[in-house]
Every structure is written in structure tokens, then in C-alpha cells.
Prior knowledge:
Elements: H1 2-23, H2 33-45, H3 50-56, H4 58-70, H5 72-77, H6 79-84, H7 86-110, H8 115-121, H9 128-138, H10 142-166, H11 172-194, H12 196-227
Helix pairs in contact: 1-2, 1-3, 7-8, 7-11, 7-12, 9-10, 9-12, 10-11, 11-12
Amino acid sequence: MMLYLALPLTILLYWLTRKLYQRIPLPFINPLLIPMVVLMLILHFGQLPLQDFMDGTWIINWLLKPAVVALALPLYQQMIHIKAKIKPIMICCSVSVVISILTSMLICRAMGIDEEITRSIATRSITTPLAMSVSESLGGIPSIAAAVVIMVGISGAVIGFPLLKLFGVTDPQAQGLAIGACSHAIGTAAATERGVTQGAFSSLALVVCGILTALIAPIMFAIYGLIL
Length: 228
């Protein structure tokens, strides 16, 4: 049954959540968060096979790749502004990557978490395929990296903009960079809904931070290993 209900149920939940958010614009009423939680509960308590759900929603999975490529459109539209501020953009993304990896190391160390898990968590702020690849090259567990990335992305999509507002960050370019650097593709989807500028700069941060993490993370973990 789930094979045939998976796609219409997913679309219906997404549509209903968007309509609810338009009426009650609260951060936790998120079109990504609410449908995901509801579907997880249905699969768990209904003891329904996950594979049937995956087979039933294959078209959504297929559309993920062209959807990511489509993020290049707002990036192209804002290219003039991006070129004019390329230096501060690179500095912000580099600092973001270093802080993300360093905080993962320090928190995991303070909590006595296994080093293999630490190497898996350290890539939490970049998009899933890159996070899995980088964490594996570091000696981490790709499946854990993927799960953490998804949780971080949803958290950023839900509370990212309220936090930016709380700290007085109102510039659309700065908002986009912050969301893309911390919440990768899921956060970028939320940023795109806020505006073209936020979406473009979030897309840029997503790409730049992914590349920088692949370059910086091995160096930081090599230093981390020498210190320990």
C-alpha cells in the first residue's frame, strides 16, 4: 500500500505544511521538518517497509540532482554582486569552515566521544555527498556523517533566520552566506524562499564551504592528531 501512497502523501503533507506556515509563520512549522516527522511516525508505528516508501517516491529522489543544479540560476543572477565582494566572501567561508571543524573537535573531545565519530561529525556543515566522502577520507563513518548533515540542515532551515534576526543580521547577502555555510542544501532551499539574493549567496557558500572543508579538514585533523 505504501508503494502507491508514498508520493501523494508526501506531496500532500508538504502542501499542507506550506499552507499552514503562510497562515502561522512560526519557525518550527517548516515544510521540511513537519512532513519528515509525520512520515517517520507513520512508517514506524505502521511497521511499513522503508523500501516501499523509497520506491514510491523515486521521482522526488530523481529530481534532487536537477534541483541542486537549478540553484546555479540565482547564483548567476547575482554574479555582479558576488564578484564585487569575493574577498570578504572567501574570508567568511574560510572562517566558517575552521569554526565548524574546530568546535566539533573540542566538543567531542570534552564529551569523550570516540575519534571515529568525531571525524564523522566534523563535516556536518557541508552538503551530504561531500560530507560522506570527506568523512570517509578522514577515517569517519559516512552513514553517521549523512545523518548528522541532515539534522544540521533541518535545524538551520528551521531556526537559522530567527537566530539571524535575533542577532541583528538583516543584510540579505550576509543571511545567505550564513545559512549556506552552516546548513548546506537544506538551508539553501529555505534561503531561496526568502529571496533571490539570500538563495544566491547561500548557494555560493554551500559550494565554497564544501570545497574548503575538503581542503582544510585533513590538515586540521593532522594537527589535532599531533597535539594529542
